[in-house]
Structures are given as C-alpha cells and as structure tokens.
Design goal:
Blueprint: E1 6-13, E2 17-23, E3 29-37, H1 41-58, E4 61-67, H2 73-82, E5 86-90, H3 92-97, H4 109-119, H5 133-166, H6 170-173, H7 180-188, H8 192-197, H9 200-211, H10 214-234, H11 240-273, H12 278-287, H13 294-304, H14 313-319, E6 328-329, E7 332-333, H15 345-358, H16 370-380, H17 385-406, H18 415-425
Parallel strand pairs: 1-4, 4-5
Antiparallel strand pairs: 1-2, 2-3, 6-7
Helix pairs in contact: 5-11, 5-13, 7-9, 9-10, 12-13, 13-15, 14-17, 15-17, 16-17
C-alpha cells in the first residue's frame, strides 16, 4: 500500500472507553471523533459500522492505529483483529514525540485520536508486532513472577526495619532475614525474651532442621542469638504492636514465597507443553549461555517476542534500552551520556542479573564465564564498575543476538579464537 490507498483510523484508548477518529488520505475527517464504550456491545458495533461505511464510500480499506497502553488496548486490539481489520500498535514514545506539532497547546482524547490517525499516514512510522498467543501467555507468567518478587523484597525490607526496632541484633545473626531458618526462629520465638527462655535443645533442633547444615552450625547461630537477645533487652524500643506487625509481614512473605514457587512451576510446565514450538527452542538456546538460567532465558525471549524483527545486534541492544542517549547541538557534544533506558524494563533487569552472574567466580576462583570475566576486569581498570558492567551487558546482548541468529547453542570462544575463525572464513 502507498500513503494514499487506505483510511487511517486513530484510537485513543482508555480503561473503559476509547475515542475514534477516521481520516481520509487528504487529511479530512470522515466524521467528528466519537466515543466508544468497551462494555457496550451497541457502541462497539456502531464503531465497526462507521469504519466500514467509510471504507465503502472511499473504496479503500482501513488501517487502525492505537497506542500501546499496557493492558487496556489489548482487548480492543483482539476484538478488531477478529473482525478482520488491520490493526497496528504504536509505541507511546512515538506518539509523545508528535504531541506538540501545532502552535496551540491542546490535550484531550478527541485531539489525541485525530493525532494518532494523522500519524498513521507517516511514511516512516514504526509499528509494533503483536506477539503470538504462546508468547503472550508466557510473558504474563514471567512478568507476574517478577512483580511478586518485587513485592516480597518490599516486605522483606519492612521486616528488617521492624526488627531493628525491637530486636536490633537479629539481622546480624542471619545474613538472609527472610530465609527459611530465620523465619522459623522468628515465628517460634519472636521476642528476645522468648529466645533467652527457650529450651536449648528445642532451639538447636529448629535451627539444624530448617538450615540442614548440622548441629555445629546450629550451635554457632544459637550463641549469636543469645548474645543478640541479651543486648536487645538493654537497647530497643519494646513496642508490643511491632510484634504484631512482624507476624503479619512473616505471613505475607511466606504466602508470596508459595505463589512465586507456583508461578515458576507454571512457567516450566507451560514451556514443557510447547517443546515443539520454535519459540521454546529459542529459550533452550539462550539457556546454553553461561550465566543465563531457565527463568532468565524464558523472560528474555518473552520480552523480545518475535526475534525476526531484529536485523542487527544494535537494534536488539537499543530494544533493551542499553543504547547511550545522545546530547548534541551545533558544536556542543555531551560527554556524559547515560543509558537511554527506553526499552523493556524487565528485559534490562534480567540482562543486568546475567551480567552479574557472568563476571562472578566460583569458590575455587574459577570464573563462570572466563571471557566476560576478563573483559570486565580490564574495563574496570579505566571505567567505574557500573560502566564496566554496562559494557558486559552490551556483550551479552550481542551474544544473545548471535545465538538466536545462528540457531546454535552457545560455544565459549576467546577473542583470539574468533579472529582465527574469521580469518579462515575469509
């Protein structure tokens, strides 16, 4: 299609309703922007009939454009697609960059719908590809997993804060205050007095059984607990309500832990049921990269969606929001350019975790990924740690692109081996 062969329909989507604007190729409105209620079947049918009427009168097909709104646009998108319309999703960054095209400062739903319809005629407009049902289902599970993990972290921090009030030394006994052993002790003996008055064998058995580290470990923790409890009697704010809050936080954390485990099991089960799909095979390819576990691989692929949309490594790098921002005007060139962070937030979060895992070393001092570990160490000599880690994330993004492009499991090679392989190929 050329710019003049279709009618552009712009949709400004809200939670319960949307505004439609229909423009002909010459920029004229077929009718004034109109409101459509999502829960009103007649309203939706009237919108469909209006679009079809515009198609008949102009003898042209329509293209419907709507801004991505997280979840609100999705039911309307599916409804219109099922009716046979061509529907396209526009990145909000694109629509936001075209807000101030006029002199007047105007912001309302009618104007936004018309602006989106006008944008539909832009020859260089980039639209998003709607992922398959498999990707969308798995993406929902992965994103909910990270959402629950964030909620758990919030309550873990609240628990630590409350413990500092009534039991200041407790967090020094257990490095993970929300670990199984710590939670078991707090539930059975919530106050310093309970710790001091508890039968030694009972407390030792509790620590040994929940930690699974033996009686020697239990005795060490027992002595530390007694010291912390004794100190707390002399230095604390002994508020009875805080213990009630601690009990509530412990219950919420345990509940979140069970739901997080359930979600992870559902993610694995959903992947297992779709082993024959190309998308699942791509997850398995990413899982072959050192530092990338199953969940990280599944999440990265869910955020990428359709890999065929990326022709170059730099496009994938920018999609994750890792590309540097540019600040130049005339002869001025900004020297402090941070990450744009305009891509997928969860994808960037997972890449950061993978980068941390890639530069770690095992207990024997051996690196998990020797090549990236050496690269990181060299970068740190001239760059701050975070900048060096950002460079590692760039490398990982390139590795992900290469693995998915070549459809082969990851094979660890040094830069010298890559140069040798390239020379032989040439």
């Amino acid at each position: 299609m050329t710019q003049s062969d279709y009618i552009s329909v712009g949709v400004d989507v809200a939670a319960d309703f949307s505004w439609f604007s229909i423009l002909t190729p010459n920029g004229r409105e077929f009718r004034k922007p109109f409101k459509v209620d999502h829960d009103d079947a007649d309203s939706l049918n009237n919108a469909v009939l209006t679009i079809k009427k515009a198609e008949e009168q102009s003898s042209m097909k329509s293209r419907i454009f709507m801004e991505s709104t997280g979840i609100y646009h999705f039911p309307l998108f599916c409804h219109l697609k099922e009716l046979g319309f061509e529907v396209f999703i526009i990145n909000p960054l694109v629509t936001n960059s075209n807000k101030n095209v006029g002199i007047r400062k105007v912001k309302n739903d009618k104007y936004d719908a018309k602006r989106i319809a006008t944008l539909g005629y832009s020859p260089d407009l980039m639209v998003s590809v709607m992922p398959t049902e498999l990707v969308l289902n798995l993406r929902c599970l992965c994103r909910e997993y990270y959402s629950l993990v964030d909620h758990r972290s919030a309550y873990a921090n609240k628990l630590k804060a409350q413990l500092r009030t009534v039991f200041p030394g407790f967090s020094k006994v257990f490095s993970d205050t929300t670990g199984a052993t710590s939670i078991a002790v707090l539930k059975a003996f919530p106050t310093p007095e309970d710790i001091l008055n508890a039968p030694q064998n009972k407390l030792l058995d509790l620590i040994a059984s929940t930690s699974r580290k033996g009686l020697k470990y239990a005795r060490e923790k027992y002595e530390l607990l007694l010291d912390a409890a004794s100190h707390a009697l002399n230095f604390r704010a002994n508020l009875s309500t805080v213990y009630d809050i601690l009990d509530i936080h412990l219950e919420i954390i345990e509940k979140l832990d069970s739901k997080i485990d359930l979600l992870l099991a559902k993610i694995k089960d959903y992947v297992d049921k779709n082993r024959s799909e190309e998308f699942v095979k791509q997850i398995e390819l990413l899982d072959s990269i050192p530092g990338v576990g199953f969940l990280s691989a599944a999440t990265i692929m869910c955020e990428i969606g359709d890999f065929s949309a990326f022709a170059k490594p730099k496009q994938l790098f920018a999609y994750f929001g890792l590309d540097p921002s540019v600040n130049e005007s005339g002869k001025f060139k900004g020297s402090e350019n941070n990450m744009s962070k305009r891509g997928t937030r969860i994808g960037r979060r997972v890449l950061y975790a993978v980068a941390l895992a890639s530069v770690r070393t095992k207990r024997n001092g051996q690196a998990y990924n020797p090549v990236l570990h050496e690269f990181y160490q060299n970068k740190k000599q001239s760059k701050p740690k975070k900048v060096a880690l950002g460079a590692v994330m760039h490398k990982i993004s390139n590795i992900i692109f290469a693995v998915l492009r070549d459809r082969k499991p990851f094979e660890l090679k040094t830069p010298a081996q890559h140069e040798e392989q390239y020379a032989l190929a040439v």
